[in-house]
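Homework help board

Subject: predicted structure for assignment chain

Our instructor gave us this sequence and asked us to write out the predicted structure in token form, then describe one feature. I got the tokens but I'm not sure how to describe them. Can anyone check?
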Amino acid sequence: MDANPTAILHDLLKARGLSVAEDGATVAVGNPLHPRINTVVAATNGRYLTDYGYELGEQGDERATADRVAFLLAAPAAPIADGVSTSPFEVSMTLDHTTSPPSGVDPNTPSIARVYDYFLGGKDNFAADRELAEQVLQAAPNARTTARANRSFLIRATDAVVRAGVRQFVDLGTGVPTSPNVHEVAQRVTPDARVAYVDNDPIVLVHARALLSGVRSDVITIKGDLRDPKEILEHPDLSAHIDFRQPVAVLLVAVLHLLADEDDPDRLVESIRNLMAPGSYLILSHLWDDPGGVARAGADKYAHRKASALVVPRTTEQIQQFFDGFELIEPGLVHLDQWRPTEDMINAGADDRFVLCAVGRKP
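My token output:
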């Protein structure tokens, strides 16, 4: 009698250092070093899928499926060429060429989210991401400091808005989790603030669900593509979690420049604005088409390497248009280091002039 395919998968996953619990046709899988990093693998119509719909492989090819799950969860002891077990995040990098990635993940195609993670000093990135990041730094040496300045703006803007009384937040284009995240900032001031994270990168989703929405029930993560605002804004999980009849803050931090003009970023912002209640806020930052051409030089590197998305710098006037229908709060549309800088920033002489940012309130 042939062995049960699910039982075979169970054993292969355990051999890769993962914690496994089998329940009929489903297998709950986790990273024992990071318990919140987990997923459920289900056998459906002859194929293995994660609980959020990513295809892992066919029944009958359990070895490749196990490799893909280990890749996705950054297993602590996944098979590596030299047989050395490393930390979870080191494994996620070491697996560049030793396992098959899950459906939707190509480690040889640079991902904008993972390049950004590299700039922030994270480890959830692959060789192709790091290579592109270094090429961008050659063309735009400020890219790393700009990424960090952008993250600092997100924190300051979120804090300002929650102190203005907003208790609901939607972070569109979340990226790889980086502490402090939006919910951590908001819940310092308002412990019951509700936050929804939205992204479409499978690596981002598994970490976001584990480290962000796995924290507490008032934080959720959903899959969504910014090019389809209707799908995001009408997502049943978002509708159940966020009450758009009440003020909400929507974050579009360093994401609209990932949409080409033909993707119609104005339509996305318009859809959000139309759904918002009065007193809602838009928190936005965008790569600036600087007169020196530094931003375009960096953006060209993404296009040359055929990254997961293009990078489109825009003029001050084009970025200003995203705030049509909003009243900008002080200090208006400015460079990252100029938006309500902290005393430490002022003392350090922070000077980053390649991204424009603002916070707008819907009257």
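Reply (TA_rk): Your tokens look well-formed. For the description, you could write something like this. Residues 143-163 form the longest helix (21 residues). That's the kind of observation they're looking for.
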